[in-house]
Amino acid sequence: MSMTPRSLTILGATGSVGQSTLDLVRHSNGAFCVAAVTANSSVKKLAAIAREFNARDAVIADASKYEALKSALADTDTNVSAGPEALVEAAQAPSDIVMAAIVGAAGLRPTMAAVRRGATVALANKECLVCAGDLLMEEVKRHGATLLPVDSEHNAIFQVFEAENAKSVSRLVLTASGGPFRNTATEELFSVTPEQAVAHPNWDMGAKISVDSATMMNKGLEVIEAYYLFPVEKNQIDVVVHPQSVIHSMVDYVDGSTLAQLGSPDMRVPIASCLAWPNRMHTPAERLDLQKIARLDFEAPDLVKFRCLKLAMDALQVGGAAPVILNAANEIAVEAFLTKKIGFMDIAETVEQSLTACDMKAPQSLANVFEQDNEARRITHDVIARLRKS
Ligand code: NAD
Ligand code: MG
After folding, report:
1. Reduced to 3 states, what is the DSSP secondary structure of residue 214?
2. CB of residue 266 inside a 6 A radius of ligand 1
3. Rounded to whole angstroms, how far apart are CA atoms 16 and 344?
4. Does 18 contact ligand 1 (Cβ within 6 A)?
5. Which of 37, 43, 179, 356 is most buried, taking the most CB atoms under 10 A from its CB?
6. Is the dihedral of CA 108, 365, 384, 239 positive or negative?
C-alpha cells in the first residue's frame, strides 16, 4: 500500500489531543506526515515534535518565545514563526487535514482560517462552536470545508447519524461519565482541590477540560456543540450519565431504533476515525471486552449539584450572546480555580453571576464575538474579585 502520505496541520500539537494525534501518525506506517505544528508557549515540547516529525512549520503563539524556538530548531529545515498572526498563517498553509486542538476561544481565529480555505478540519476545540457556532457553520458551508467532530460523543453521533434520514432522527443522547465527583456529596465539593478535580476516572485530558468534566460544564458545552454540528432542534438533545464511558453517545430514530458507537475510552479512536474518514485505520487502542466490563450503568444527571451543566443548557435555550459569555466566564473561572484563587463551587457561581452581569445582543460577526468574549472576561474578573472579598 504505497500512497503519498496525507499531511496534517496540528493546532495545539503539545496538548493531550495533539499528542494522541501524533501517536497515530507514529503508528500509521507513513500514511500520514506532519506539515505544521503549533503550541502556546512550551518551546521544548514543540521543538521536539517538529524535529521528530520533520515538520515544515513550527509556530509558537507566545511571540516572546520566537528566539528560543528558532535556536532550538536552527539545525533543521523547519520554518519557525511566532505570534497570533503566525498561528492563522499556519492554519491557512496547505495540508490535507487540520487538527483543531487548541483549548478555549484562543483556537477560534486559526480554526476559522482553516475553514475559510475549505480545509478538512478535525475539530476537537469545542469552545469554537460554543462561541461562534452559527458563524463557523455558515463559513463551513460557504467555503465547502469539511468538519469532522473529534470530541468522542460527537464523533460517536457522527458515525451513526444517517444524514440522508436526518428528518427521522428523534433525539441525540450524549453520554457523560459524571466525572470524578459523581458520588461526592455536595457539601464536600466546596473544599475539593485542583489535583482532585483534574484526576478524571476514565480519560486522560488537559487541565481545563478535566475541570470542565468535574463541574460537568464539559457536557453542557457539548450539548451546545451538538446543536451546531447536527441538524436537530435544541430540545432534541439529552444527557445521560454512564460512568463506564463505553457507549460514547447515541442517536434515536422515529422507528424506535437507537444507534450507538462503543469503544474503550481512548481519544485515539475518535481521532483515527477523523484522520481516516471516510475509511478506517488501525489504532493501538485497547479492544472493547464487554464480558470483562460485565455491566453498563446509566443515571440521570444531577442538575442541582452540577449547576454548570444546567447553566450551559439554559445558555443554549436563551441563545444570542449567552454561550459566548458562558464560555468566557467559564475559562476565567476554571483558571482561577486551578490557581487556587476561588473554590470549586465558585466556578458555577462565577459563571452565573457573569451571565447576569453581561448585557449583550447576539454577535453579528467574528469581530463581534471577540469583543463580547473580551468584555465577558473583564466582567468575570470583577465578579471573581467581589467573590474573593465576600
Ligand atoms: P491541552 O491543554 O492538553 O492542550 C491545549 C493545546 O493548545 C496545547 O498545545 C497548548 O499549547 C495550546 N494552547 C493553549 N492555549 C493557547 C493559546 N492561547 N494560543 C495558542 N495555543 C494555545 O488540551 P486538550 O485536552 O488537548 O484539549 C484541546 C481541545 O480539545 C479542547 O477544546 C478540549 O475541550 C477538546 N477535547 C479534548 C479531549 C481530550 O481528551 N483531551 C477530548 C475531547 C475534546
Ligand atoms: Mg467529550
Report:
1. helix
2. no
3. 23
4. yes
5. 37
6. negative
Calpha distance 347→312 (Å, rounded): 13
Half-sphere exposure of 286 (CA within 13 A, CB side): 9
Q: Answer whether 151 contacts ligand 1 (Cβ < 6 A).
A: yes
Degrees, nearest 5: CA angle 169-172-174: 165
Would you say how long the chain is, in residues? 390
The residue type at 227: Y
Angle of helix 126-142 relative to helix 217-229, nearest 10 degrees? 10
Q: pLDDT in tens for each of the 390 residues of the chain? A: 557 999 999 999 999 999 999 999 999 999 999 999 999 999 999 999 999 999 999 999 999 999 999 999 999 999 999 999 999 999 999 999 999 999 999 999 999 999 999 999 999 999 999 999 999 999 999 999 999 999 999 999 999 999 999 999 999 999 999 999 999 999 999 999 999 999 988 888 999 999 999 999 999 999 999 999 999 999 999 999 999 999 999 999 999 999 999 999 999 999 999 999 999 999 999 999 999 999 999 999 999 999 999 999 999 999 999 999 999 999 999 999 999 999 999 999 999 999 999 999 999 999 999 999 999 999 999 999 999 998
Give helix then strand counts, H and E, for the chain: 17, 11
Q: Is 17's C-beta closer than 6 angstroms to any atom of ligand 1?
A: yes
Q: In Å, how far are 79, 97, 103, 128, 153 from 229, measured between CA atoms?
A: 34, 18, 18, 12, 12
